[in-house]
Amino acid sequence: MFKLDLLFKLSIIILAGIIGGRVANYFKLPNVSGYIVAGLFIGPSFINLINSQDIISFNIINEMALSAIAFSIGNEFLLKDMKRVGKSVLLITVAEVVGAVVIVFSVMYFIFRQPVEFSLVIASMSAATAPAGIVMVIRELNANGPLTKTILPIVALDDALGIMVFGVALSLSKMISGVASYSTFQIISKPLLEIIGSIGLGFVIGMIMTYVVKKAKNKDELLTMTIAFVLLGTGAANFFNLSPLLTCMMIGATLVNLKQNSNRVFGAINEFTPPINLLFFTVAGASLNIKVLSTVGLLGIGYILARAGGKYIGATLGAKAVKSEEKVIKYLGMSLLTQGGISIGLSMIVRKELPHLSDAIITVILFSVLVYEIVGPILAKIAITKAGEVDGMIKKKAKKEVAL
After folding, report:
1. What is the pLDDT of residues 134-160, one digit of tens each?
2. Domains of the chain
3. Distance CA 124, CA 401 (A)
């Protein structure tokens, strides 16, 4: 069989993504769901135009897309806003993470009678929300309002908490399995150091970036500098075994707080990312293998329902506890269900650290990602639409212009 050139395959991915986005729009679905389904069709699950080796070759696209998305989320951490809502957001995030972890653990251990170490690890992997799909939906809808402003910092924070919870659960599971022994200090300190290190690295790079981008002569140079610093953050985090996602979020957060008119920087990167995002989600769809459906059974379905229930109940109770607006209480839970790259990345760590549990965990997680990456953005779009925040960004700009 003839071998297609990698660049030719790249063009197929782009065209398939465009068609998928158009079809999704026709059915009033978010573009991201169309990209993922299009990738599913051209991947190994169906016509196999893009095989597993190709997907590995496109890993750099995934890293670029996730880094740019994480950097953009950092824009939401303006200190004056965080002082106003920071405590509320943190409490909601903790409630949402605890809800997901407790309910998934309970369902796996008490209902499905899985070993305690299996239940601990897979429950900890349920906490993180994939930010990419949600950010894409928000941009597509030009959404702005109380729900949108609550979603973005929660998505950022629950990734940080999710990484820490996973680190603790992995250490406990290795102790229970007899694979390794750790002190209580080691169990807590390892994930905590990763988070602190990532934040510190992002802060340093963000400070340097704030100074350097002031020297940009025009928009093109500003965009070039921004891309360079986002890639620097990702590369440095990988080098030091830190989290690229948290590092890039912190670069964005540092920039938005130190630089006046930082919107120019975030606007520049947002103009660059649409084709990267299309490639990222279409490749993500191609990497999903529909064959896992035949092996996942009731355990996978139970995990999906438990995670959705835990996140929804936790987010709702948290929002009620901090007296959020009614539409935040009502729609926040269904906006936080996307699951993707972080969970897959954590499952690869499980394969290395707990190989005797990895096959079952990876199968369930891949099935979960397959479902949530398609359904999650759809539910987020429904929630934001019902909350009345579609085109909120346009309305906000119009009000500023009237005020001026």
Report:
1. 888 998 899 999 999 899 889 878 877
2. 1-57 (no CATH), 71-198+294-403 (1.20.1530.20)
3. 46
